[in-house]
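Posting for a labmate who doesn't have an account.
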Amino acid sequence: MPARPAGSRHAQAFARYERARTAIMVGSAVRAARRKAGLSQVELAKRAGTSQPSIARLERGLVSPTVISLDRIARALGAELVIDFEPPGVRSRQPLAPTNHSRLPA
């Protein structure tokens, strides 16, 4: 098996880091919104049509949910999923645990 160029290993490691970072940010936003709604993981799972362990994995950043799954979770929280793109370095002033909609950082 031929050795991979060093740049390739770096690029793959960076891609894994970015996926993990995004999954953690999404999980954190879901957890904050769930807590703000006063729901347990079990209650949210029932409302979203999934299992409590699935919600736990999502909140811990162990999985990257689909947009469809996130929309179902947002509706189960009585919220609206909002996806937005911003220029690099600009942070949204919206809180991660929104009042009337779920704004998940990109």
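Reply:
Got it, the structure tokens are right above this. The mean pLDDT is 85.
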